[in-house]
Amino acid sequence: MSDYVRSLGTVGLGVLGAVTGVCGAVVSRMDARVLGVPLPYGLVLAVAAATLLFWQARKLCGLAGATAAALGWGVPVVIALWPRPEGDIVFAADGFGLGYICLGVVAAAWNVGRARDHHEEFRTTGMVDGRARRTR
After folding, report:
1. SS3 (DSSP) at 84
2. What is the pTM of this model?
């Protein structure tokens, strides 16, 4: 993959991270009541979407992609934490709001921490003289 395509992919992953963060902030509050017990399907969907984005960003563009997606996701989440002048908030201090933030940060940190630069990634293709031969 050329450096130009990798740069465009990294920018695109940052934008996708921002879209995922905004959508997750809205969707994470959705729940269904079954016998009076809230089932947080929105929280599960929002965290799963963010986790899958970080994972795919790491697979596609390595450390730069995972970092761009995580930063893109983090910007709208941090902005949503600030109270508005009217006193409204997006994330409440309950299980839904804190769960989305904490689980999203864990997913981002896990994928950024596991990312390797694609320039350094090698695959083992076989054994040569008792040692693993590595190629790009």
Report:
1. coil
2. 0.77
